[in-house]
Write a structure and sequence with these properties.
Distance between the termini: 44 Å
Number of helices: 4
Helix content: 25-40%
Largest sheet: 5 strands, mixed
Shape: elongated
Strand order of the largest sheet: 5-8-9-7-6
Order of helices and strands: EHHEEEEHEEEEH
Strand content: 25-35%
Structural class: alpha+beta
Radius of gyration: 22 Å
Oligomer: single chain
Length: 189
């Protein structure tokens, strides 16, 4: 990762070959701890259901079991969905897939993109946490960790930010696909 104070950082990206399909990802291993907490809630709900003596009544026990299992499933899905993010840039679109199932997913056609820029410091604290976020003054984002990312500007003025490793290469790939094709020269006609 390059930082603005590095002597190697340039705002004009060097001319490197851009692959036909660029892929990148970002991972946050800390969220596995939250997933374990979600699994523990589910385990507590199952333990209450199986080993309870049922002396306190059926309704309170049922509410405890359902509450533990529901909270556990929400925490488990919420964390596993944002343990990592995968970004793909091809000739048609920028696609962002979250988690192991690829959900939530966002596909942005390049025809809707007017620009892309490198963001050296995307911070979950600025977005209100990890996950799929929306803030009226900042736009939409998928933030799975602190660090570099890309900001895609759409034709309607909205922005979409995503944390991804090697974000400069992603910006280069998007910008390369946004350039109009060169017109044929007189010798090529």
């Amino acid at each position: 990762m390059r930082h603005p104070h590095d002597s190697t950082h340039t705002t004009a990206f060097p001319a490197e070959p851009v692959p036909a399909v660029w892929t990148g990802r970002a991972t946050n291993r800390l969220q596995w701890l939250l997933a374990i907490a979600g699994a523990a809630c589910i385990g507590l709900g199952v333990t209450l259901a199986v080993h309870s003596t049922w002396t306190s009544g059926f309704a309170p026990l049922l509410m405890s079991v359902v509450g533990c299992v529901a909270a556990g499933l929400l925490v488990l899905y919420g964390t596993l969905a944002f343990v990592h993010v995968a970004v793909t840039v091809d000739s048609d679109a920028v696609e962002v897939r979250c988690g192991h199932m690829g959900l939530p997913r966002r596909r942005i056609p390049l025809s809707h993109v007017v620009g892309a820029e490198f963001a050296p410091k995307v911070n979950p604290r600025h977005w209100g946490g990890w996950g799929y976020r929306w803030r009226p003054e900042m736009g939409t984002a998928v933030v799975v960790r602190r660090g570099e990312g890309i900001i895609v500007t759409l034709g309607d003025g909205r922005t979409f930010t995503v944390t991804v490793d090697d974000a400069e290469a992603a910006v280069r790939a998007i910008r390369d696909r946004l350039r109009p094709a060169p017109l044929p020269g007189p010798a090529e006609i």
